[in-house]
Amino acid sequence: MKFSRRGFLKSSAVQAAGIAAIPMIVSETVSASPKKKAEELSTGDVILFQGDSITDAGRNRERQLANDASSFGTGYALMAAASILEQNPEEQLKIYNRGISGNKVYQLADRWQEDCLDLKPALLSILIGVNDYWHKRNGKYDGTVEVYETDFRALLKRTLDSFPNVKLVVCEPFSIDGGTAIGEGWQDEFTPYREAAKRISDEFKTAWVPYHTLFKEALKHAPAAYWSPDGVHPSMAGAQLMAQAWLKVVFG
């Protein structure tokens, strides 16, 4: 491989600018919840991250352990969980990641008893939606945005029926302009899914993490290839940006 000093320096400059900009990006696009969810947690409470491949992030599904790095993968959930545990050692919290790559809302519902209700979460965070659109776009799924919204609403109602006091966090499904997977018409067709997620968040009065807005702001500081090469799955920097935004919303 031929080493290019100019290319290396240019790449390094972009990376440095992107990393340095993360606090600014989060500050400009994310607001802390009026009532901090962290303040409502008690000793031994369970925090659960749920979703698709963005949450899964290559985790070892054979372990399924709380507070275990290999059970978390390498994404935003790991980064957020590590910060929570480091800052709250006295609470003895148990944090799980049960995201599964490729999942759509109905697939969360299929495994909800084992992968959510049985864990008795005090705080539940869900990021879901990109596959509900993406798999329809590529002909592998015939669901609609109406199905997505109906299924998502039923999932939260089912959760609250079992745990009326659970603290809910809904994360905005996102896609990033300039990513290799984001073809013509994607953003216009995906917007209704994001809007549906926001309606559900408002209806159930959940905390809301505006990831799509966050990444639009991030593109002012570095290109899509830096934050998420395919526009769907975050890079290391993208995952850190997501984690910081999540922590600000939930912990303030």
TrEMBL record:
InterPro entries: Ester_Hydrolysis_Enzymes, SGNH_hydro, SGNH_hydro_sf, TAT_signal. It comes from the Bacteria. One of its GO terms (molecular function) is phosphatidylcholine lysophospholipase activity. Coiled coil: none annotated. Residues 51-241 form the SGNH hydrolase-type esterase domain. PANTHER family: SGNH HYDROLASE-TYPE ESTERASE DOMAIN-CONTAINING PROTEIN, THIOESTERASE 1/PROTEASE 1/LYSOPHOSPHOLIPASE L1. This is Lysophospholipase L1-like esterase.
